[in-house]
Amino acid sequence: MKKGSNTISSIIKGNTIIQKIYKGLLTVYEGFKKILVSGIPPVTLSKSVGQDLIDYKLYGNSIQDGEPSPTAPIEIQSVGNYDETTGKYKVPVKVTGLNLLDKNKLLNGYIKSDGTIESVSWYYCTDFMEVSGDYLTYSNCASTSATVRFYAFYDKDKNFISGSIQNTDEEGNSSYVVSIPSNAKYFRCNVSSGKIDIAMVYLGDTEQEYVDYVEPITTNIYLDEPLRKIDEYQDYIDFINQKVVRNIKEKKLLSTDEWRTYDYNKHGIVPFNLTLSDVGLSRYGHSICSHYKNDKGAIWALNKVDLYSDHPDGTSYYFNTTMTTLDEWKQFLDNNELVLDYILETPIEETIELPNIPTLKGTTILSVDTEIQTTFMEVIYKGNGEPQTLDIEANDTLNSLLSTDTETELDITTTDINNILDDIIGG
What we know:
With 427 residues, the chain is mostly beta strands. It contains 5 helices and 35 strands. Helix content is 8%, strand content 38%.
């Protein structure tokens, strides 16, 4: 058997997994396995080995806060922060450890019930910690004194929202779960000087053992357009295939487009330019407009003013207004940025170079730091499994290395090891 550069014993020290080979069986200690996690960000990856994600998908979202009208339009906001430097939409994916409390950023003072800070030299409070989701837990932070046991939530502009007092036992120990307000972006709490080395704040409501704070890592994804959503249809990022899949298209309607009037009930405008070749045959009843409410295809309802409807054939959009001439309508378009988002019959796939996203060894929290949050995240990562024994009879790579059916230590290369792992756990 050809000698390699790494022995089994040396590879084990690097957390690579093969320990014993005996009579055709492979004993795997803390064996790697692929783990799928999905949900609304933030998502938690447990028992990560600290390698880059194997795969990830991020799904779009669109929000229109209210009902639009020609005189009071409402912007359609989607996932992605516009970056003036690149001219693209940035989707920052943030990797943090379990513990959000950085003891190196503690401040002298304590938080009062109104969220303000009372400056003192004998007590500490945390800096602003970013939070998201439904719950957070903070443990072993406060003393037994009720005066200094407050915590507080703040909005994106760091304005106080709400707070309360933390419960503790007689020695000031606690593991306290609190609900995160829907408009909260930041959290702060008080920390006793005697608790600094064991204090912890983390997302979720499950009791966890103490871990040290780790500096967050942010990876930016740059897109030509934001990730949109209408009803159950969404744009999404597909890392493994290095592409963005577009189910939603946005179009700015212009006066130079071809328009004609429609005299049902004597008023209404139809955009004659939105033909099959232009919109790819949009889906009936699914579209959003910046200046008009969608009446979901009810063309016969055009006796109502200030609405539009998308036609069942999927190629026409009727705008019902108080305007009665094309010139008046075109002048309105010249003075207003009228935007229409609609669902495509056939998705458009864009090839894109998507970055690797790291994980931390142990617990990793993945969040998406955009103004409009993604509706869903799906990731596959390499985690530590339980010790197990695997039948390697069908593993050609390993069988070719065996010289005996007795317990032995093989001298093989790292490449050999990786090939074996790929066969067993799929990469």
